[in-house]
Specification:
Blueprint lengths: L1 H29 L8 H16 L4 H37 L5 H16 L2 H12 L7 H27 L2 H9 L4 H31 L11 H12 L3 H33 L2
Helix pairs in contact: 3-4, 3-6, 3-9, 4-6, 5-6, 6-8, 7-8, 8-10, 9-10
Length: 271
């Protein structure tokens, strides 16, 4: 009933949005003098836009930087999930009284150090100290640094999700003759993942924005590409505004995707 109602009102909401946008455009055009949007200002904006993005095809720098940012984010997310899941399982075993001495100590140290230090410091240490004498791709180093950092937060998200699943689920699986690992993989983890999916999406969005500091090791990511344009044109407004808008657009797309996934999960729960 609610779903049908929301579907019915969606075209009306879009119409209202377009009408509001049209009204704003009309106001800008009619009151351009009062708003200071005179011909001289518009011409200056056009000139600045041309110098920042059209001359020497500098818009390609932003496109290339966006590709680097997405590449780093994808690899870092994959590494973070693998590390986070491993650490989370170790912490769950510790919670259940099954301490693996070396692994438990390592997991606790890892979480303390990674969550207690800034990601930019970790990035610099990995690049200049650990790989300082090795000829290695900067994108790979950035992916490792952000993946290791993200793994600590993903571990806590997954651990909390597993512990939130009713204890009787594991006991029911064991009573059916399943081993601990099989019951965890087939019964507990699927339920935990459904609960923690929104938090994992938020971590993905946070990680995407954190990659903006990759320029500290001279990775030509999106933020650094905008700064390179600024250094050529001595105009900070348009390049940095373009960078901010691109990040905003990606975050909005991810947020919308997360909303759709949550809606489908809720729909499956009522079947």
């Amino acid at each position: 009933m609610n779903t049908a109602s929301s579907t019915h009102h969606r075209p009306l909401q879009r119409l209202v949005s377009w009408l509001v946008l049209a009204a704003v455009l009309v106001i800008v055009v009619v009151f351009r003098q009062q708003l200071g949007l005179n011909a001289e200002l518009l011409e200056r904006l056009k000139t600045n836009f041309t110098n920042n993005f059209i001359v020497d095809q500098r818009w390609r720098w932003l496109l290339s930087g966006l590709g680097q940012t997405i590449l780093i984010t994808v690899f870092a997310v994959a590494l973070g999930v693998v590390i986070g899941l491993s650490i989370a399982l170790i912490k769950v075993l510790e919670h259940n009284g099954k301490k693996l001495f070396f692994l438990t100590r390592f997991a606790n140290l890892y979480l303390t150090v990674i969550r207690g230090t800034p990601v930019v410091v970790q990035l610099l240490i990995i690049y200049y100290v650990i790989f300082g004498s090795v000829n290695i791709s900067k994108v790979l180093v950035a992916s490792l640094a952000f993946g290791i950092n993200s793994g600590a937060y993903v571990a806590e998200i997954i651990r909390a999700g597993i512990l939130a699943v009713d204890r009787g689920q594991m006991e029911a699986g064991r009573s059916l003759g399943l081993t601990y690992s099989v019951a965890m993989r087939r019964i507990v983890l699927p339920q935990a993942i459904k609960n923690i999916l929104p938090a994992l999406f938020n971590e993905l969005i946070t990680l995407l924005k954190e990659t903006a500091v990759a320029g500290y090791i001279a990775v030509a990511d999106l933020t650094r590409s905008g700064d390179m344009i600024r250094s050529r044109t001595f105009d900070a407004f348009m390049p940095l505004l373009a960078v901010a808008l691109i990040y905003l657009l990606i975050v909005m797309m991810l947020t919308r995707l997360m909303t759709r996934v949550e809606r489908r999960l809720r729909r499956s729960d009522h079947r």
